[in-house]
Specification:
About 25% of the residues lie in helices and about 30% in strands. With about 425 residues, the protein is an alpha+beta fold. A seven-stranded mixed sheet has the order 4-3-5-6-7-8-9, with helices on both faces. Helix 4 links the parallel strand 6 and strand 7. It is globular and about 70 Å long. The protein starts with 7 loop residues before the first strand and ends with a strand.
Amino acid sequence: MKNIKNPQIFYTSGTTGEPKIVKKTYENLVAEAQDMADFFQISKDMVIVSTVNPEHMFGAIFTVMLARVTGCRLEPEKVFYPEDLKDYGKYVFVTSPSFLAKLAKYEFKFKYKPQMIITAGANLDDEVFAYFENICPITDIYGCTETGTVAYRKSHKEHLKIFDNVKMENKDGKIVVKSPYFSEPEIVLNDNLEFFKDGFLVKGRNDRIVKIYEKRILLDSVEKNLNSDEIVEKSYCLKIDDKLCAAVVLNKKGRKLLSEKGKFAVTKILNRHAHSDVTGALIHCKRWRFLFELPLTNAGKVNGTRIKEIFNTNVTYPDIIDFNISSTCADFSLVFGHNSNFFKGHFTSFPILPGVVQLFFAKEFIKDTFNLDFIPEKVKKIKFSSIIKPDTIVYLSLVRKENSVDFKFSDKDKIFSSGTFVL
């Protein structure tokens, strides 16, 4: 949100394309924030603590505007990591499903429990929802930048229910929304919804249907099929050059299989699930990236632009065998396979990992570990101490400081290389 003059300027998350400008009047924002304050019974003695960016609609309404219409305090420091949470007293935790998923994954326990959790911006997995239901009240919000808030659910067992001041109807086969939270007479939703007597659920976005080899493929469906495999934690699919591509985060069992059997064996298993159920067409993923985590936007959504960038590097990514990440440190166990394209032609009879490739991957892991979109000012204290051979386990350690990140490639006995990226 830029200021309180009309119109207010917001940007969509841009996960499936370029971010789009959305204009709202200040009156739209006040009406929405006041309704949310009444619905959630936000009192003046509460503190709003957030992990989300106020330049996006969810963050603006549930942080800046909610504080403005109620007079409650907004914590100025944005939370980036669980350890950033402190004793705020009586506080409301505003966050994204992706942040909650990380907390649930490691069975996080609040030292200072919030009064309630409010989340929006992406699909909230039912298991994650159920985990937090046992801790404190949690509400999952459905909406978008254009419409603002539309519906909610307070349990993973419930369907979404429409807010009182929002109207939704099927108009000539399209779902339209009418609301005081935007200035247009109505807005057509781009989501595929299924309705029930007690509400509705979101089955996926209509703009995630792509044509591959003249067959219509629903990317949401492919991801759902992949995620059903016992070795997959999560995935993101996209189309590049008429090929179906998949970025996959393997769970511990999957990473073990990857280290023992290799990529070909893993992709063969996963391709059993890759076809879409829209047409029944057996369209297999042709390109794969195995990541330690799906990169996210500031709004907490999967960053499709960054994933496309990773695919377009045309550099073979190392296998990630294990990892451990905190707010300032990260450790990765990697294997640079002998068939990686950067080994070809580089000392054919005695292949070694080029120093420039080590610098490239140190930078890539820094970008995605600490969510830094940066071009380093310089790299200093670079030291190449020993050679890295293919098919051996290499440990990459990252340490983030205020204006720099240290990196080190090593094994149990020696350091291969080290240096510092200046941010």
